[in-house]
Amino acid sequence: MTDRPTLDILQLTVTLRGGRKLLRDVSLKVQPGEVRALVGESGAGKSMIGKAVLGILPPNIKPTEGEILLDTHHLNAMTPVTRRRTVSKIASLIPQDPLTALNPVRKIGPQIVDPLIHIHGWSRDKARERARELLDRVQIRNTDRVLQSYPHELSGGMRQRVLIASAFAPSPRLIVADEPTTALDVTVQKQILRLIRELQQETGTAVLFVTHDMGVVAKISQRVSVLFAGRVMEDAATEDVFRNPQHPYTEALIAATPSYSDLNRSFSPVPPALIADLHAKIAAEEAAS
Amino acid sequence: MFARTLLFRLSTALVTLFGVAVVVFVLVRVAPGNPIAMMLPPGATEEDIARLTALYGFDKSLPEQFVIWLGGVLQGDFGTSITLRQPVDQLVLSRLPATLELSVMALFIALALGGAVAVIGARRRGTGTELGLDLGSAAVLSIPDFLWGLLFVLLFGVLWPVLSISGRIDPRIEFEFATRFYVVEGILRGRFDVVGSTLAHMLMPAMALALPLAAMIAQVLKQNLKEVLRLDYTNLSRVHGFSETAVILRDALQNAALPTLTLVGVQFTFLIGGTVIVERLFAYEGLGNMAIDAVINRDLPLIQGIVLVFAVLFIAINLAVDLSYALLNPRLRNG
Lengths: 289, 335
Known about the structure:
Distance between the termini of chain B: 7 Å
Number of domains of chain A: 1
Radius of gyration of chain B: 24 Å
CATH topology of the domain at 97-298 in chain B: MetI-like fold
CATH superfamily of chain A: P-loop containing nucleotide triphosphate hydrolases
CATH class of the domain at 97-298 in chain B: Mainly Alpha
Order of helices and strands of chain A: EEEHEEHEHHHHEHEHEEHHH
Oligomer: heterodimer
Radius of gyration of chain A: 19 Å
Largest sheet of chain A: 6 strands, mixed
Helix content of chain B: over 70%
Helix content of chain A: 40-55%
Largest interface: A-B, 33 and 22 residues
Strand content of chain A: 15-25%
């Protein structure tokens, strides 16, 4: 591990207009070359963290406290224009739903190439060359045909490959993968997951991997942050979390994960009593502070 | 596939036109008012009346009259105007260009104004600017085109007389027109004094026609833009460092334009309907103005001719809208 993290989030609080806090005091680091999983059930705020880093929170949600350091740049202190340019050069996004992540009225080619020209100021030829190279790498045959296609002419799995190629194409130092396999069917999920892991290892890109699936966490990440109600419950090495979960919620999440390799292993949903208990504890803490 | 669609549309268009022809033919004849009575001076004899009635064929039964008229139409003979004593097709074709130029100018104004307001509103969504634009367009929308026309006459014709309030072109301009498309011909022949004068005459009626449509486009397009701006591909563009305005223009606009287009198509036909009154208001020598005269004078052949031309226009516009879908939406291109 090198001296400074690629992403360093310090006590980030994100607030909905009206005052409700969607994230509270969230801190986490992603070291260069590391995959950090963000896990939690829907509504825990895991996607919100990635969006806050990339600057794509909805207009009514704002980061109100804390710091986001992306490769030592203080993002929250920047003007919107500088922030946008800085983030585009360092980070990229693999979105959740490949069906809505490509513009339906534009061909694939420009959708990969134009951002490269915009981000790095490359020539069109160089950007196109890079796009081909990445499409090859994500095992898309017939690269030229795909570049000439509209999104609706490709399958969901193909579109997700295109989006992965597009995310790695500008050689980012950080990739936010926002549940990139959730919208895909199970067989395609496995291939896509393997692809992201391979590319990540080849390029040494740091990844913030948002998921609700502990099985995916085990396969892809070195470290994991467990989120509940906008707070980090546990932050540890993935191995340790599975071997010896420190927080009862983490334990329950692990127990709630079905295993495809061992169908006889039993699994049980996170007990509602535990969730109620956690909410009560949080409410009490908030009342005290 | 495309050819088949077109063929189907054209055949349904023919059926529609036939229906329109029947309805108009019957309506103008059962409505009160006798065209022959309008033509003769007071004190005409019974004999004169009978002669003229026979001359125009009004002594025959309705179905007979219709068959005679339709037979003529199919051979390109739309009859003769009772009041103007000229072939209907010539009269209509001489006025149609004026109405087309006015409607198209109004459409461009509506698209430009409405589009700009929608983009600004979407860019400033959630702010006071958006609210202000919403209220403004709601107010504009609630005033009909002819009232806008009256207001403009008052403002720019009377109180601050900068624009001409009547006619189509300054009569002092000397120019031999080969067609009736004054603007188009003026541009093609490089006579920009002609173009300028025609546009200046068209500006107020075109604005009056355009404003309600512009307000409607502003509201619907902005709503569609806001929906598109929540989708992931716009988020990806933001991550790629494109500004919000660039995201709206590059990614959102074309997608949001698709559902807006249906509205524009339908509303454009209403706009053309609006020319009837607005042309009258500005003494603009178009088809609408002629239609009012024809109705007042019970000029049955002329009314029929004008209505048929309007029907053809409406059908053509709807067809054009459908075809432009395919242009904007790649998913429909092979359909």
